[in-house]
Automatic annotation (TrEMBL):
Membrane topology: Multi-pass membrane protein
UniProt source species: Taphrina deformans (strain PYCC 5710 / ATCC 11124 / CBS 356.35 / IMI 108563 / JCM 9778 / NBRC 8474)
GO cellular component, one term: plasma membrane
Annotated protein name in UniProt: Glycerophosphodiester transporter
Family indicated by similarity: Belongs to the major facilitator superfamily. Sugar transporter (TC 2.A.1.1) family.
Domain Major facilitator superfamily (MFS) profile: 46-440
Domain of life: Eukaryota
This protein's record includes keyword Ribonucleoprotein: no
Coiled-coil region list: none
Membrane-crossing residue ranges in chain numbering: 44-71, 83-107, 114-134, 140-162, 183-212, 218-239, 266-288, 308-330, 337-357, 363-382, 403-421
Length: 440
């Protein structure tokens, strides 16, 4: 665009749109849209409506662990050799990646508002379908197959929420007061996801206390079914939303996207953000193995489900302090430096935990639990809060959803790899190593 100006040529609108800053001048005061007369509270509420449904996504992703534990206890024989049951925890990753890529494109083509409405509808439908999964003639195998199938589509709905909610929250947060824009974005995205993880452990804890372990069928179905509450309550407000001003300014649904220019302009940023997201999700899911160390050390064999879920809730709570402080840190330090500080400090704690694992554990589970909690909090303070923030703010509005969707999908692939890495490494590396040395 600068070359065109120097040569006195007319600037191509497509090039101007691609090279627009991700956020800068207040588009709310642009003469094409008039003065924005909304109060600050109304602007913040708009951002919340865009992003807060991610709480439900965190809840749905977290609560499946509880459901798997209950189903395995209720039907030990049926789940022992069930392929559907074995993939129940991981099948949603596939749907999530497809949903992120698909709706990254859709929200750039049909708009943030209609993308959010469709994503919310899908989330409500497939959450309800999972809660009501049944097999033909009451077959347990059929129920497990149906649940696995519905979880795939639920994963797609969860993936759909990420780019549409984040793109919309990014653009509406730019219309709020300067100095708190990053904090409000993080507060309605990553902080809500983490809160969803906490509720995904806390809700079944409460349900077990209410229904007791004699009515676990009601517990697991209600655990899943309550995931519809947040998206259902937000549906009306999302219908009433208007498109963010930044999206309108970039041409909205009528914009023609010059993909070759987009690739030349953003491929380096997209590659860097995607790699960081992949590594962070891989490591955070792989380090989840320490969570089982805490619960197995604290709880004796045969402990009640209420105690197990109570400790799971405690471990998930450790995410919240880091996510909360990181929201303000992204404004104080800037997203890039906040991410770097968080990664550096988390790496120090992580290497310390791995290097002195046995020594720390022998000194008492309390100290290990606190250190693990600090590790989780630092992860959320740095990369957890800021990777998505940077991804949502680093491109033009006309491709923001696709940019974010691709980066988030690669991050989710890293999460899947980190989720299966401990078991795969044990079967194919550690186990072989031990057997070889024992044979000698």
């Amino acid at each position: 665009m600068l070359d065109s100006l120097r040569r006195g040529r007319k600037v191509d609108p497509a090039i101007k749109a691609v090279e627009e800053p991700a956020y800068g001048a207040d588009v709310a005061l642009d003469t094409g849209y008039g003065v924005d007369t909304r109060s600050n509270a109304a602007k913040y509420w708009t951002v919340a409506v865009c992003g807060i449904a991610l709480l439900s996504d965190g809840y749905c992703a977290s609560s499946i662990g509880t459901v798997i534990t209950i189903i395995k206890g209720l039907y030990p024989a049926e789940t022992a050799d069930s392929t559907a049951f074995s993939i129940l925890s991981s099948i949603s990753f596939v749907g999530t990646v497809v949903g992120q890529l698909t709706f990254g494109y859709i929200c750039d083509r049909i708009g943030r508002k209609y993308g959010m409405i469709i994503a919310t509808t899908l989330l409500i439908i497939w959450t309800a379908m999972c809660a009501g999964a049944y097999g033909l003639h009451g077959s347990i195998g059929g129920m497990l197959a149906a649940l696995a199938c519905y979880r795939t589509f639920l994963g797609f709905a969860i993936g759909a929420e990420y780019p549409v909610s984040s793109a919309a929250a990014s653009e509406t947060s730019a219309e709020t007061k300067k100095g708190h824009r990053h904090a409000i974005f993080v507060g309605v995205t990553n902080l809500m996801i983490d809160l969803g993880f906490v509720l995904g452990a806390f809700v079944p804890y409460i349900l077990v206390l209410i229904f007791s372990e004699n009515h676990l069928r009601a517990v697991w179905r209600l655990t899943i079914g309550l995931g519809v509450v947040i998206p259902s309550s937000l549906f009306y407000f999302r219908v009433k939303l208007t498109e963010p001003k930044a999206f309108q300014k970039a041409g909205g649904r009528r914009a023609k996207i010059p993909y070759w220019l987009v690739i030349k302009r953003y491929w380096v940023k997209l590659t860097a953000i995607s790699i960081i997201w992949f590594i962070y999700d891989f490591s955070s899911y792989a380090f989840g193995i320490y969570g089982s160390t805490v619960t197995s050390s604290v709880l004796p064999k045969g402990s009640s489900l209420a105690k197990v879920y109570g400790w799971n809730t405690l471990l998930n709570v450790f995410y919240l302090p880091g996510a909360f402080l990181g929201a303000f840190g992204s404004d104080w330090l800037g997203p890039k430096y906040c991410l770097m500080v968080g990664i550096f400090l988390q790496a120090i704690v992580g290497f310390f935990m791995a290097g002195f694992y046995n020594h720390i554990l022998n000194s008492g589970i309390g100290g290990f639990t606190v250190m693990y909690g600090v590790f989780l909090s630092l992860g959320e303070f740095g990369p957890g809060d800021n990777i998505g923030l940077i991804a949502a703010k680093s491109s033009s509005s006309m491709v923001r959803g696709q940019f974010y969707g691709i980066a988030a999908a690669i991050g989710k692939i890293g999460a899947f790899a980190g989720n299966v890495f401990p078991s795969v490494s044990y079967r194919h590396v550690t186990k072989v190593f031990v057997q070889t040395h024992i044979a000698r």
